[in-house]
Amino acid sequence: MTKLRAATARARRYWCELTGEAAYERYVAHSRAHDPEAQVLSRRAFERRRTDAREADPREGFRCC
Questions:
Q1: How far apart are CA 63 and CA 48, in angstroms?
Q2: For residue 55, what are the contacts with CB-CB under 8 A and spacing of at least 6?
Q3: Which of the chain's termini has less CB crowding within 10 Å, N or C?
Q4: pTM exceeds 0.85 for this model
Q5: Cβ–Cβ under 8 Å, residues 54 and 60
Q6: How far apart are CA 5 and CA 41, in angstroms?
Q7: Are 55 and 63 in contact (CB under 8 A)?
Q8: Largest alpha-carbon pair distance within the chain?
Q9: What are 16-43's pLDDT values in tens digits?
Q10: Is pLDDT at 8 greater than 70 in this prediction?
Q11: E strand or H helix at 51
Q12: pLDDT band at 10, cuts 50/70/90?
């Protein structure tokens, strides 16, 4: 059973990296490590900022809608 749990955990970590969900977790860990007193963005605000930055980058391609 422990092998199944370990495999499931690895699959979940892989899926989070693949979908970009882990980016927020990395952001929180980085923020807490560098300035524990700083206010951390909510997941929603973080994703909004990330989306805005991605859409503003001309290398990402044109998005019409």
A1: 16
A2: 63
A3: C
A4: no
A5: yes
A6: 31
A7: yes
A8: 49
A9: 888 878 899 999 999 999 998 989 999 9
A10: yes
A11: helix 43-56
A12: very high
In the block, tokens 């495999």 appear at 7
Q: What digits encode the pLDDT tens for the residues 50-59?
A: 888 888 877 7
Q: Where are the alpha helices (DSSP H) in the chain?
A: 2-19, 22-34, 43-56
Q: Are 25 and 31 in contact (CB under 8 A)?
A: no
Question: Tokens at residue 50, please?
Answer: 């990330």
- Ramachandran region of residue 61, left (φ > 0), alpha (ψ -120 to 50) or beta? left
Quote the tokens at residue 21: 């969900």
